[in-house]
Amino acid sequence: MRSFSILLLFLFPGCLIAADDLNGIWKGTLTQGPGGCYPQYFLELQINFSDGLITGKAYDYYDKSHFIKMSFTGRYNAQTHRLVLIENRVLQADIPLDCAPCIKTYDLQYSKKGGEETLSGDWKGIISGKRAVCPPGKIDLKKTDHSDFPVDIEQSDTLLTLQHSLHLQPREKDLIKTVTVNSPQIKIELYDNAEIDHDTITVLINNKLLLYRQMLRDKPLTLNFNAFPGVEYELVMYADNLGEIPPNTALMVVTAGGQKMEVFLSSSEQKTASVKFLYKP
Predict the structure, then answer these.
(1) How far apart are CA 188 and CA 165, in angstroms?
(2) Percent of the chain having pLDDT more than 70?
(3) Which CATH superfamily is domain 2-144 in?
(4) Predicted confidence band at 243 (pLDDT cuts at 50, 70, 90)?
């Protein structure tokens, strides 16, 4: 059985660089020697680099219909410009029946020349569930502002399971504002807008459930997420009820780097309030 490449990236301790150096979307190719499922694949890494930690998603694919999606964590050594990551979970797979997952280790080097940033290096690995060695190969990636796949928002397993069981009735969206920030780390705090009247809300970002039936109070409901340059993120506030004083209203406080701003949201049984976020370095 031929091996199909999965990204397995191992943790490499070391010093850290500024978040913007690695944060974002990296695309390019992954080659594999004779005996692999294909001699060359496309590879996309969606790297979140926040507070010194790397998390993200990897898409290893021959075409958009045949791919493996993995999650990973890792660190970066700023002194050697070496990046080694570890994948920890298969999130989705659609590969030919005669291909087998290849669990890989990547040893990548970061480089920046002019306006172009690259990750390149070697890989090796073993076939999943076997001791057979995969034919090794090379990796060449460039940083880009375009993804071939949806950009995920981190979501807990509990909320993921809950979202699969929910059937929120579709409502018209009322776009309140588009917020442009200059920092990738975005903090959102949601308060009751006036008198506490037992409003409860459900909140999604890019269709990922992040809050479910939470009551608005004088203490904030807090969300944090890491944004990629050029990618649009949409927060939707869904009113579970209208409270004692309709409609369902909230004060949103957005903090990103040195920026801080307020946005007033109002949702009803017919409309949901939405706010879009765009990170521009």
Answers:
(1) 26
(2) 90
(3) Quinohemoprotein amine dehydrogenase alpha subunit, domain 2 (2.40.128.120)
(4) low
Residue with structure tokens 């049984």? 269
Using alpha carbons, list the distances in angstroms from residue 140 to 11, 39, 74, 206, 267.
Answer: 20, 14, 18, 29, 47
pLDDT tens digit sequence for 186-202:
999 999 877 776 889 99
Domain span(s) for CATH 2.40.128.120 in the chain: 2-144
- pLDDT of residue 18 exceeding 60: no
Tokens matching residue 25: 């979307």
255/220 Cα distance (integer angstroms): 13
pLDDT of residue 16 exceeding 80 = no
DSSP label of 81: T
In the chain, which ranges are E strands? 2-6, 24-31, 40-50, 53-63, 66-77, 82-94, 99-113, 116-127, 137-144, 172-181, 185-192, 200-205, 208-215, 221-226, 232-239, 248-256, 259-267, 271-279
Task: Specify the 3-state DSSP secondary structure of 159.
Answer: helix
Query: What class does CATH assign to 157-279?
Result: mainly beta
Q: Cα 211 to chain center, whole Å? A: 17
- pLDDT of 50 reads 73
Could you tell me the pTM of the whole model?
A: 0.78
Positions of CATH 2.60.40 in the chain: 157-279
Structure-model confidence comparison of residues 11 and 47, the more confident one: 47
Give the residues across from 100 on adjacent strands. 3
CA distances, 37 to each of 25, 62, 241, 246 (Å): 25, 10, 53, 59
Q: What is the predicted pLDDT for the residue at 244?
A: 62
Cβ–Cβ under 8 Å, residues 135 and 34: yes
Radius of gyration for the chain, computed over Cα atoms and rounded to the nearest angstrom: 21
Q: Does residue 154 sit in helix, strand or coil? A: coil
